[in-house]
User: What shape does this take?
Amino acid sequence: MGATDLSPALRSQVLAALEAGTALKICGGDSKHFLGRTTAGQVLSLSGHHGIVDYDPRELVLTARAGTRLAEIEETLAQAGQMLAFEPPRFGARATLGGTMACGLSGPRRPYRGAARDAILGCRLINGRGEVLRFGGQVMKNVAGYDVSRLMVGAYGTLGILLEISVRVWPRPTHSLTLMYECGPAEAIERMCGLSLRPLPVDGACFHEGHCYIRVSGAQTAVQEAHSRLGGEPLHDGAAFWEALREHRLPFFACAGPLYRIVVKPHTPPLAIAGDWLLDWGGAQRWLASPVPASAIRRCVAQAGGHVTRWRAGADDADVFEPLTPALARIHRRLKDGFDPGHVFNPGRTYPGL
Amino acid sequence: MPNALNARPKRTPTQRKLLKALARLLPPACVLTDPEDLRPFECDGLSVYRRMPLAVVLPETVDQVQAIMRLAHRMGIPVVARGAGTGLSGGALPSGDGIVLSLAKFTRILRIDPPNALATVEPGVRNLAISEAAASHGLYYAPDPSSQIACTIGGNVAENAGGVHCLKYGLTVHNVLGLKVVTGEGELVSIGTGTLDSPGYDLLALMTGSEGMLAIIVEVTVRLLPRPERAQVALAAFDDIAKAGEAVGALIAGGMVPAALEMMDRLAVQAAEDFVRAGYPRDAQAILLCEVDGSNAEVSQAIMAVREVLLQSGASLVRTAVDEAERQRFWKGRKSAFPAVGRIAPDYYCMDGTIPRRELPRVLREIAALSAHYGLPVANVFHAGDGNLHPLILFDANRPGELARCEALGRDILALCVAAGGTITGEHGVGMEKIDSMCIQFQSGELRQFHAVKAALDPAGLLNPGKAVPTLHRCAEFGAMHVHRGELPHPDLDRF
Assistant: This one.
């Protein structure tokens, strides 16, 4: 696959939009358009701005243009026995690295190997003044200046257009085993939280339809040892199960009604909200398909110290993300003004006024 | 001459008004104004920079912190937050016309929550105290800066502190899940609640490493990890430092993620060996310490693999610790490297650059050349796993001009790190020390963006002013003195 650097053209488009006072809707592979609030504006496509710029397995760092497809990156890493540790959900073959970072999504391995924001080391971006800027770098440790790269992760493009991203990568474990236990949700939560007290190579834990699934990965002897300590029934095709969970292809996610992403501390007991539940991230990320009004769900989750995202909100997109406290909302507005004073980038995608 | 030295300085009416107001807000023991009381606060771990503050306040409650910040905001008084003062970049250097806000009285561990593997503590709690409090549950706090006995978690967050286990367990930013901060305007804000993510922008990441420039940290929630069942370390000696660098790359390429991977050069090895008798081979040009941790079976398998790679990479000797005592001894040498080097020269200056690992042999060669050029010896201690280099420059501050020469050498080493694709600071922060080197790492656009971030969180600009991010004017002046290869940095700036 050829590589193309469209930075100058992208910058020109930003300058033109600034001049004309039009908003831009930033788009990578368009695989996550269903997330967040709808935003008007002229589409600025990053998909043509692609290519792996630098990758040396001995450095554990990969740098790619934002429009590079995740599939290409993951294949390149796999050839060197490495991977993106945060197991990003792709939600489609066209998913790009830039879109993945902008949405800040992480898969089942998140509690054990870090999130998208933990993997980013540096970036090049266009800010709302049309300047091309570089933050962070290609090294593991870097505390020069504020951590603007991490601030971009999960900002849904509202602070800047990611052009190039450096990520930290991990060795791919040589062996992996999924253990299954029949149990209810409360017992599953105890089991999953108990694991965080034991030094075992766990890198996935979820609960779904009366079963708790634990994934252990590493060298063969370590996986065998973990199995003998944890017991449980090995799942025949564990890899396919985790892939389906990561990509939301389990039947659970095919529901037509409202779907909520709920983040709580993992040891939070099962929440008393009617609906179908799937617990991932060892209990810390919970999916709920429920007809209960969003406001009631928010109240219950807030009491448990968590927050709620309305997944696939569709046309009714008020309050997709958890409302911010007034103090936080003020800081958010000031930051937005500091990066994108003309509110050109994805206005309103996350919250009104951002 | 102590009387003259401690004479009460003349104060402006505003300053007198401030001190009166502080006395109303805080108990008498919590406001220091006598020069002899202020003296311990005039510098942090980088003692070559010293400045006396107007006053030091030691609040005991969050309400008091808020009241102090509201007062400072109203009166336009600079505030420098301070933890244990162990920082190595002058980040806690006082403002002469401002106050130092010490968090030394915030020492309570508020909550250890084993099932959620979280600890919530006040900012003045020492790094190591968190692990000690969690130990009975088999848990610990992973980031371990070398000052962990003394340094506080609040300071760790402000500096995004690292340590020897970052490659596997991350820096502070990877291990903090919640903060309570007081803004420059005196408002209390919760950022994150201990959950794995939070709605909105990642303000936790923004606060971590912000060097006290964006807010005052008054509470910290960190995640805890299960203490590994076993750790084992391999010591490898090399007759050529380039081979040691190759070995590091080979270990990583071989799919290993060591818990720690440290390198020391000949000068550092000899100093450490003379100091603590760690059992290092004194004739080695470089040694590597490679630690693996995990479950019993994991460690047994991994240490064999490590041994093999080290031997294949041309190590002249590989030893694994025969018991826990020897493992501790191997580490003692590394952990004593700074004081050990301190014994062989009147003064030393610790640098903190990061480079891509593949650049190591070249960068070390060029450091050696710079060392010869400036006539100052350099010992190298290196967090090899994550490319974080700590060159220690040996000098004598009592010899006229030697400190200035040492600082110039330090700046050249940092410029070398940037040119190699690295950074001017891996874990110590910019503070006052590296503020001019920021002009080498960043262009005007990035610096303007940093100032915009600062203005968003601290519009009045009173939190730790003048640190970490240089003004464009400062860079223009600095650039005028340091023209690199004929290219004028920041060409878009006016020069006078």
Q: What stands out?
A: The CA atoms of residues 205 and 283 of chain B lie 44 Å apart.
